[in-house]
Design a protein that fits this description.
single chain, alpha+beta, 2 domains, 3-stranded antiparallel β-sheet, 27% strand
């Protein structure tokens, strides 16, 4: 999920330092330790970990070119919809709940206070006025939000099949009576196949976006590429990835 969640090099570095290596203090400085393939302890600096993060991201980007094209498509389509003033919406399935994405630009204010002998800082956010959609945040959030909506739809579809049974969910885990274990397993697989194989979300999303744009603007096709006429300017419509 490194690429879909727009992880930065700093973010990847933090994941490595927090979960993959051991933080130790040596000679009044902080180093990170791990073991090599021969079980020998090796020490890493913050720079070493950052370089590891660069290598990891480069490998992922190189080996997941189709994923990068997909992320770029959703990001560019999000930017276009914001420019045109069209709400960003989608449905996990045609009969699913309608999802809206909206991020407004905000400003932070820090408040410091003391409690006992300790000082604390609280960061509060408020929406800037006039209200302006945050394009950058919307671009970064679109793919994670789509993934979460698909996961949620999958879970809701499963739970709805057990209305007369006691069932609990914790993220992507399910708790049910042992007698219903086989039925739960079958429903999990069937709903998964129905969601991701019987229905092409990308095709449905692309068609729905084009319909929303066409309701408000005119299209023009130039040399096989589709454009939308916006205030006398022709804005390119992102092509759906293969």
């Amino acid at each position: 999920m490194t690429i879909p969640y727009s992880a930065t090099l700093i973010g990847i570095s933090e994941q490595i330092s927090n979960k993959m290596v051991k933080k130790v203090n040596k000679n009044k400085s902080t180093v990170y330790e791990t073991i090599d393939i021969n079980n020998n302890v090796i020490s890493l600096s913050r720079k070493d970990i950052y370089n590891m993060a660069k290598i990891i991201k480069e490998v992922i980007v190189k080996n997941c070119s189709n994923l990068n094209k997909l992320i770029e498509y959703y990001g560019n389509m999000t930017t276009l919809l914001i420019t045109l003033g069209i709400p960003i919406t989608w449905q996990p399935k045609p009969n699913g709940v309608k999802i809206y994405e909206s991020y407004l630009k905000s400003e932070k204010t820090n408040y410091s206070f003391r409690k006992g002998f300790k000082s604390h800082t609280v960061v509060l956010k408020k929406v800037k006025l006039p209200k302006i959609v945050d394009k950058m945040k919307s671009r970064k959030a679109i793919v994670p939000n789509i993934i979460h909506s698909l996961d949620s739809h999958h879970k809701i579809s499963i739970v709805s099949k057990f209305r007369e049974r006691t069932i609990f969910t914790i993220h992507d885990c399910f708790v049910i009576h042992p007698n219903d274990h086989t039925k739960l397993k079958n429903e999990f697989v069937n709903t998964f196949v129905s969601l991701y194989f019987d229905h092409n979300f990308l095709d449905t999303y692309h068609e729905a976006v084009l319909n929303k744009i066409e309701e408000n603007y005119n299209f023009q096709s130039i040399e096989g590429k589709l454009y939308v006429d916006y205030k006398g300017k022709l804005l390119p419509i992102p092509a759906k990835p293969d």
